[in-house]
Amino acid sequence: MSRLGETGRRMGSLVLSWGAVKHGAADPSDGKNVVLHEFAHQLDFENHAVDGVPGLATREQQLSWSEVMRSEFASLRTADETGMPTLLNTYGATDPAEFFAVSVEAFFEQPRALRARHPKLYAELRNYFNQDPVEYSGEILGEEQRLSS
Ligand SMILES: [Zn+2]
Question: The domain that contains 136 carries what CATH number?
Answer without folding.
Answer: 3.40.390.10
